Amino acid sequence: MPHVCTGKALKSCIHAIRCGIITDTTLWTLCRYRHKTHWSGAKNLLDRGKNNKFGDAAYAFEELVAELGAAFLCGATGVESVPREDHSQYIQNWLKALKSDKKFIFSASSQAQKAVDYLFSFQEQAEAA
Q1: Which domain holds residue 34?
Q2: Which of 9, 17, 21, 65 has the most Cβ atoms closer than 10 angstroms to its Cβ?
Q3: Is the pLDDT of residue 71 over 90?
Q4: How far apart, in whole angstroms, are the C-alpha atoms of residue 44 and residue 69?
């Protein structure tokens, strides 16, 4: 695995582990953005119901929300969003879900934007303080 980023959401905190495999700053930033988007879906936050397993539609949905959220954050912060080699494992799940649900991409985009808005609300709070 050329690029691995793992993280764990505990008590409304994000613990992203930089294990030395990701040496590219852009990929590391993209990884952090994906994990922050995932984190925003916790039950006590935006509650996207994240008890899913790889391959099911709910898992594909959450992964697409995270991917879109990261892309939106990259666009807003001027970071180049680069494709990762390990994305191919998700693409098949996304295509399967897109074929069975015509609103899948719109729902995922909407949830991703809510996540980004939520994440940016922290910046607004900090600037107001």
Answers
A1: 6-128
A2: 65
A3: yes
A4: 19
